[in-house]
Amino acid sequence: MNQILYSIIPGTITKINENAINWGLQGLIAFGSHSAIVIFDPVSFSILQVLDGHDSEVVCVQWSPLLNENDLENPYHSILASGDVLGQLIIWDPINAKIITKLPDIKKRKQRRKILEIKWIEQNKNYLLTLQTPSIITLWNINLNSTNSEIIEIWQLDLEKTNDIHESCLFFELNTSQNYSMIIGSDTGNLFFTNEFKIHKKRPPKILRKIKTESHETTKFFSEEIYTPSPQDLTIKQIQFDPFQKDILYIVYARDITILDLRINMAISRIILNEARSSFIQLVLTKAQNHLFCFHEDGSLSIWVQRVTNKVIKYEPITFCEQLRIIKKKNDGFIISKLVASPFKPNNFIFVSENEIWKLTYKTKRKRMQKKEYEPKILLTGLFELINSPITCMSVSEYNRNLIGIGTEKGNIQIFSLEKFLIKSSFFILNSPIRGLKWISEDKIICFGYKMEENSYKNQIFILDIQSGFLKEIQIKLAENDFIRKIKLSPKQRYLAILYNNLKPEIWDLLFSEKFEPIYKKKISDFLWKANERSDKETFVFATRKEATGFLCSIEDQTLSPISNISFPKSMTKTSCIDWNRLVLIFGNYSGNLYCAFIKPEFKTTIIQVGVTRIDQIKLSPNPNSFLLLVLFIDGEMSIINLKNYQKITSNTSKLQFKYRITNADWISETKIVAMCSDGFLRIFDDKLICQNTIININNFTKKPQAPYLFPYKTTLSLKTAFQYGLKIIENSNEIEDEEIFYIIKDDENEVNKQLIEINSSISNKTKKGISKCDNIPELCIFTSLFFGDQKEERFWKLVLHYLQFFSNNQELLKEIENQIENQNKNENQKENQNQNQNINQNQNQNQNQKENENEKENEKENIIEHYDDDDETEIQKQILEDEYFSKPKKERLFSLSRNFGLFQETEKLKQDRLQTADFHQTFRGNLYPLGKIIIDDYNLLNQHSKSLPILMETQMKNPSFFRDMMFAIAISSQISKDQTIQTIKQIGSNLILNGNHHDGAELLCCSGLHEEACNLLQNIGKWTYSCRIAKFHLPFEKSKLIFQKYANHLLVQKNQEKAIEIFLMIGDFHSVLQFLVELKKFDLAYLFYLSCKKFGFLTKIEEENLKENLKENLKENENENLKENENENENENENLKENENQNQNENQNQNDSISLKDFIQKPFSLIPLNDLILKSKIEYGNFVFQLGLINFAKNIWINCGERGKELIGKNFPKKEEKQN
SMART domains from the xrefs (predicted)? Predict the structure, then answer.
C-alpha cells in the first residue's frame, strides 16, 4: 500500500461550515467540514491535509498574514486560526499537523460562546480579533515566538454590558486606513463605529456613533427602478471595505448593495436586484478595480462593472454564471460555502458545495468583428469531488485493498482510491439510500437498497461494473412486506442469500432464478459463505439470535444439505456476527464474547471475553496466516485481539476519545484500518488504533503542489533567491556570466542545488513564462513576492521599480535639484530651530520676491514629471504583473502605481482622482453645509477656486462660519485677480495655525498661493500628512522634496523606519534607503536593491567618488598621525580636542559632498559612507545564502568584498592541502 497522505478523508460540509473558508497568501485554501479543517491546494487541485482537533463544528477559519523577514533563526510557519460552535479557538501549524496553542479550559466554561468571525491584525501576526455571540469582541495576543505558545486576552468589548446595546452582532470589519478601528454590524441593520485602539494597550475601544442604514430610502439617483423592500430584506448580510479606497464601504442586503462614503457619511451609489434574480448572500472584492463579484442564494454568480455617466456612479451586470443554480434547483437544501477569490489572480474563484470543490474563472473574449468589445464569460475550470456523506455503508475490495466502495444516503456509490487519495468514480444507483454493498470481483460491486411505497417495501439488488458504469438489476421476486437487512453472494456468484429484518432468510440460484426451500424458519443473525476451490460445492455457515448453535451447510448441483451443527456454551447466546478463514471460525455475540473454533494447526475451541456490549462486526486480518482480529462494538468502540494468546492488543474508547461513533470498519493492510464514522468521514487508524493528523510531505504526492511554503524553510528561501535572480539554470560554473547573480548549476553536487533542480521540474510553465518576461531585478522581485504571498515586499519593490524608472528618465532634473541643494545657504539649518513666529516674519519678504520664480519652476517641474499614461486598469485579465506593462518594449516600460498607494502615485493621477471625487460629491451636496465644507476643501486643495467660490458665497448669515467663509471668499477673489492683499492674508493664516486652527489657516494660505509656508507651519505643529498632501499637489519637486525629507526625519525619530524608507524612495534618496535596509538587517533586500540601482545607473558614480575620497582621507589620516608623533607630548589637552573636532568636521564635510541627493536639512542620523553600506550588505547577504546552502554563490559574492571577504572565504573554504592534513 502507498504512503498515507492524510488520515481523515472528509465528507460534505454542513450549514454551520458555510463561512468557514479562506484563501491564504501562501496559496492554500482552508475550509471547515464538520469538526475538521481541510487544507486544499488550488494549483494541483488536491487535498493536502485534514486537521482534526475541534470538539464541535467549525464556524470560521482564517490564515495569518505572511510576515516573512527571511530570518533563519525564527522561520516563518503557515499559521491558521479556527473557531467552532462551542467557542474553542485553535491556532494551527498545518504543514507540521500540530496545534500551536488553543484557548485553555474550554470545557470548564459555564457559557460556551460561538465564535462567529476571526480577523488577524495586519502587519502583526501575533494579534487577532474574535467575535463571539451575542456581541463580544476580544483582542488576543498569541505568543508564537516563545517555546510554550499561549493565548493571552488583551481586552474584551462586550457591547451589551459596556454600551447597553441589546443587539446580536453578526460581523465586524477592521478599518486600517488610520491606525485601527472597527465597524460592527448587527442583526437589526445597525452599524456601530468605534474609536481608534492600540493593540499593545489593555483598554478596549468605545462606540463613537451608531448609523441606522435605512435600505428602503431610495432615490432615482441610485436607480431608475422603484423598490420597496420587505423587513427581511433590511437585514445586513455583509460589510466590506474597498481594497483601493478605504473610505468606501459596501453594505450588502438581501436585494440591494449600498455603497457608503465614510468621508461624507452618505450613500453614493446603489445596486438593486431584478425581481427575477435570487437574493445576495456575499460580495467579493478583488484586485480588479471597478468590478463587483456577487454570490447569490441559488448558487449563481453575477459580475457588475462600474459606469460613470454625468458624474453619477452606476453598476451594470455584465454576466451571470448559472451552472450551480441548475444543480441547486434539483436538490432542496443544497449547501454552498462562501466564495473566495485568489489573492494573486483576481479572476479565479473557489467555493465548496456539499460534496464538491468548484473552481470558476472569469474570462473575456474579444468579439470577432469588433476589436474594442469583449464578451465576458465565467467558466468552470476545476471540480474536485468529496465523499457525498452521510455514508450508509462501506466495503474494502478484497482484490485490491487500495479501493474502497462507499454507499451514500442519496443513492450514490463512490469509489475512493487510496493510491491517489481521491474519488476515482461515482455512480448514481437509486433514489433512496444504499443499504449495503460488497465487492464481488476487481471491477464489480453488488449492492441493495429499498424505499417505502405506501404500506410496502420496494427492495432492489444491483450489480455495478465500475469500469463501464453498466448497472444490472437482479431479476428475482423479493418480499414486499419487509426490507432487506443483508445480502451474501457466494464466491462463485451463483447463489445469493438474502436476510430480511423479520422474515425468514432466502437462498436463490441466480443461474435459474429459483429459490431454495427455507433452511431455517426463524430469523438468523449473520450468514457467511466459504469458497471451495476443488469442487463446485459451496459451503456456508449461519447463526441465530436465540439458539446457542451455529449451522454449517453446503450447496452442490442445486442441492442444499446440512453438514453439522456447532453447539455453543450458554454464555454464547444471541450470536451477532461471523467471520471465517482457513485457520479459524469465529462467532461474536451480544454480551461481548467471542467463540473461536480453531481449525489449524489443530482443532480446538475457546471463548474470549473482549467486552460487555454487543459485538457488531468482526474482521480477520487480510494476512491468511495472521491471528489478528478487528472487533467493532455497537457503541463504536474498536479493539484488536490476538487470537493466538487470547489477548486484547489495543482498544479505543469512543465515548471518551471521540465526538463521533464508528459504524463500520475493515482492514486496508496488515497495519492499517479504515473506519466509517457517524460524521460522514472515513478515518484511517494504525495498528494501535490511533488516528492522528499527518505531516504534509510533498514527495508523497504524484502531482506536486505549487505552494512554496510546503518545502523546508531553507529550501523555500533558496527557491525564493532563485526566483529573484530569474531562475537561471546552467550546466557548469564556466557558463557564469555575472558573479553577482545566482545560478542553479546542474553539475554542482550541492544538496540545495539538487533540490532546486527537482523543484524546477515541477514548476508550471505559466510561472516560468512570467519569470522570463521580467527584465530587471525589481520586476523579478515583484513576481517573487506575489508568488510567495509577501505583501510587504510586493509594496516595497513596486515603489522601487516605479521610482527607479522615474528618476532614470529624469536624470537632468536630479542634477538641477542636487545643484540647488548644494548652493543653499548654510544658515537655513539654524533657521529651522528658531521660534515659529520669528520664522514667519523673516521669510515674508523673501517668499514674496521668489513667488513668481517658484510658480514658473512649478509649471516646468509638472511638465517634466507627469508624463505617465493614464491607462484604464479595469481589465481583469492580468497575470502577476500587468499584461499591458509587458506588452511594451523594455525601454518604454513605466510601472504605474495603483490607487491604494496614496501619495506615492503620480501627481496628476492623484489630482485627477481627487477632482473626480470632489465633482462627484458636489452632485450630492444640496443644502448640506458639512458636505459643502468638504467639497470646498478639496477644490481649494486642487486650485479649483472658481468652483469653490460659489459654494462659499452660499453661506447664510445665521451660520456661525459665515465670517470665516467670507474671509476665504475674499482670499480666493484676490488670488483670482492677483490683488495686493496676500501679505495680510498670509499673516492671518499663520496666526490661525499657531492658535490651533491649523486647518483653516493652512487652507487660507493655500488659497493665497503660499503653499510652502503652509507646509512648513503645518509640519511645525505635527500635521505631517496634511503638509505632505499640499506639497505633493502644489510645490515643484525641489520644494516638495524638502517637505518630504522633513517628514522622513520625523518618521525616523518615531522609529518608523519602514515608512521612512518609502519616503526616501519617493524623493530619490537611494543612499538613505540602502542605509536603513542595512540597519533593519534586511540584507537580502539591501543587496537586491543595490543591484537594482546599479542596473538603472544609480549609486555607481557615488561609489567611485567615495572610493577616491576614502583613499585621500586615508593619506591625510596617515600624515596627521606622523605629525602628531613629532609634536610635543606636553601640549594642552583642550587644544588637542579642538584639533580633533576640526578634523572630524572636515572629514564629515568631504563625505557629505560625495553623497548624492544630500539635503541641507539637518537629519536625525548620520549617513554612513556608501561603500561601507555596499560592503556590509554584500558580506551579510553572502552569510545568508551560505546558511541556505548556496555555497558557490556566497563565494562569488565574497570575492568582491576585500579583506573581509578573503577572511570569510578562507574560513569557510579551506584549501585542499589543509583538508588532507
Answer: WD40 (SM00320)
The letter for the amino acid at 808 is S
Q: In one letter, which amino acid is 438?
A: K
Among candidates 921, 674, 897, which has minimal Cα distance to 804?
897
Specify whether the CB–CB gap between 463 and 472 falls below 8 A: yes
pLDDT at residue number 798: 87
Q: CB of 524 within 8 A of CB of 499?
A: yes
Distance CA 796, CA 1058 (A): 9
For 152, the grid coordinates are: 493571552
What does the alpha-carbon distance between residue 983 and residue 988 come to, in Å, rounded to a whole number? Answer: 9
Cell numbers for 1075, please give them.
Answer: 542605509
Q: Please give the torsion angle defined by the CA atoms of residues 488, 490, 491 and 493, in that order, rounded to the nearest 10 degrees.
A: -110
Cα separation, 663 vs 637, whole angstroms: 9
Nearest CA to 222 out of 274, 266, 271 is that of 271
Q: What is d(CA 798, CA 804) in angstroms, rounded to the nearest whole number? A: 10
597-647 pLDDT tens trace: 888 777 788 888 888 889 999 999 998 888 899 999 998 889 999 888 888
Helices (H), ranges, 562-712: 654-657
d(CA 58, CA 337): 12
Q: What is the β-pairing status of strands 729-730 and 744-745?
A: parallel
Q: Which range among 693-702, 851-860, 959-968 shows the weakest confidence by mean pLDDT?
A: 851-860
Is the pLDDT at 40 greater than 90, yes or no?
Answer: yes
Q: Do 361 and 348 form a contact (C-beta atoms < 8 A)?
A: yes
Helix, strand or coil, per DSSP, at residue 932: helix
Closest CA to 811 of 1034, 1063, 1105, 1068: 1068
Write the DSSP symbol of residue 236. Answer: -
Segment 901-929 mean pLDDT:
71
| Residues whose CB is less than 8 angstroms from the CB of residue 1025 and which lie 6 or more positions away in sequence, other chains included | none
Answer left, alpha or beta for residue 1081, where phi above 0 means left and psi between -120 and 50 means alpha: left
Residue-wise burial string across 394-403, b where 16 or more C-beta atoms lie within 10 A, e elsewhere:
bbbbeeebbb
**Over the range 668-679, which residues count as b (16 or more CB within 10 Å of their CB) and which as e?**
bbeebbbbbbbb
Nearest to residue 798, comparing CAs of 811, 784, 810? 784
* Cα–Cα dist 239/263, whole Å: 16
Helix (H, G, I), strand (E, B) or coil at 780: helix
Whether pLDDT at 1129 is above 60: no
Cα 284 from Cα 448, distance rounded (Å): 45
**What is the per-residue pLDDT for 84?**
92
1159: closest CA among 828, 923, 882, 834? 828
Does 123 or 844 have the greater pLDDT score? 123
Q: Which residue has the higher pLDDT, 413 or 1038?
A: 413
Mean pLDDT, residues 424-453 taken together: 93
DSSP state of 550: E
698/1152 Cα distance (integer angstroms): 53
CA angle 798, 862, 807 (to 5 degrees): 40
Average of per-residue pLDDT across 673-695: 89
Cα end-to-end distance, the chain, whole Å: 50
Q: Which residues contact 40 (CB under 8 A, 6 or more apart)?
A: 28, 29, 30, 31, 46, 47, 48, 350, 357, 384
pLDDT at residue 655 tops 70: no
Whether residue 426 contacts residue 385, with contact meaning beta carbons closer than 8 Å, is answered with yes
C-alpha pair distances (Å), 844 with each of 97, 986, 1020, 1043: 69, 8, 17, 18
Please identify which residue in the block is written with the cell numbers 448609523: 211
Is cis: bond before 505, omega within 30 of 0? no
pLDDT tens column, 948-996: 767 766 666 566 665 566 667 667 666 665 554 555 566 556 656 766 6
Report CA 919 to chain centroid distance, whole Å: 37
Return mean pLDDT, the chain. 77
Percentage, residues of the chain above pLDDT 90: 18
